[in-house]
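User: Here's a chain of 186 residues. Predict its fold as tokens.
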Amino acid sequence: WNGEEKLLIEIAQSLRLENIDLRLLLIPRHAERREQVIRTLHSCQLPFQVRSQGKQAVEGNVVYLADTTGELSRLIRAADFGFLGKTLPPNQGGQNPIEPIALGLPLVVGPNHQNFHETCTDMFLQGAALQTHDEGEVRRTLMDLAKSEEKRAHLRNASREWMRRQGSPSDYTLELIRERLAGPDF
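Assistant: Prediction complete.
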């Protein structure tokens, strides 16, 4: 969301200054924000590619702006870890954390996740996602994840275990149908 891209770009710049070969994938919730995000990218002077202008990033690219719609689940498969948008003030609500967690993507969540409070709380309790309380903590947590394959692996395993415990919605629905069909009403 607005403002969060700048933080992520700054983190990428800091990590690259530490000689960490990091690439940043930005996926704004609304593709129509592309021009605003592109202006931010120009001001940061990092090489970037805009997906709508060519799907294959050029060599030396640092930031990939996914300004298309309907490709989130395919694109985030390339990520090693992620940040859940719309969770840093002044934004409120948070985006859906289930899709990245379902893919085993280590996920950092800001303090504002009201739209998915129960889900996020359970993820935090099970170690499937990392809760942060402010922008500084988001920065530190993302930088730590970038530097630690061990932490990322631990989060991947915890997120997969969280998903396994949730069960399959299809299996749950099928079981309910079976119970109804076998019940005394029929």
